[in-house]
Amino acid sequence: MKISDKERDEISKIIQMAYAEGRLTEHELEDRLNQITQISNEEELSLLVKDLPAIMDNKQYPSKDSLICCFSGLERKGNLYIPENYAIKAYFSGLELDFSKAIFNKKITHMNILAICAGIEIKFAPNAHVEVSGLPILAGISHQGLIDIRALSGPIIKIRATAIFSGIEIKSKTF
């Protein structure tokens, strides 16, 4: 039976989660994600994850729909579960966010970022397609937009950033 985009997305999440848990190497991750786009039936698709555990209930990877940091510093990385709509707010703070191993709830994730007198650095996996729009006011918003074939198989992250007296740096993590 032919497979749908939804089924491809579900298998992609299982593969990404296995990578985040250390069950797959970067090469295995890339190889399996590339194969997803070429497979046309359920039987072949299920072979890609035959040796991997299925994703548990999303409650295993809790995440709120916003992150707020005020007069402090914060670093987040690892197996983070990112919802479809995510807000990041930093006031007089410094944030280092490594979303390279994060699991995105939907194929398209919308992030709203507000930085006031703050510095924010965000890293995404090489297979993530990141689109950035923003309003810097006496500030800077930097996006290292690499064109990478792997970005076709990964999550799409649409970022709207507002920076006031701040710096926001968004880039792909190289492994």
Write the layout of secondary structure elements.
Layout lengths: L4 H16 L5 H13 L3 H7 L17 E5 L2 E5 L3 E2 L2 E7 L2 E6 L3 E2 L3 E9 L2 E6 L4 E9 L2 E4 L12 E9 L2 E6 L3
Parallel strand pairs: 1-4, 2-5, 3-6, 4-7, 5-8, 7-11, 8-12, 9-11, 10-12
Helix pairs in contact: 1-2
Plain-language structure description:
Helices cover 21% and strands 40% of the residues. It is α/β, with parallel strands linked by helices and 175 residues long. It has 2 domains: 5-48; 58-172, no CATH class. Strands 1-4-7-11-9 form a 5-stranded parallel β-sheet, with no helix packed on it. Strands 2-5-8-12-10 form a 5-stranded parallel β-sheet, with no helix packed on it. Strands 3-6 form a two-stranded parallel sheet.
Shape estimate: elongated
Integer-rounded radius of gyration: 17 Å
Give a quick account of the main beta sheet: strands, pairing sense, barrel closure.
Answer: 5 strands, parallel
Which oligomeric form is depicted? single chain
Q: For the record, give the distance between the C-alpha atoms at the N and C termini, rounded to a whole number.
A: 36 Å
- Helix content range of the residues, please? 10-25%
Can you give the mean pLDDT? 84
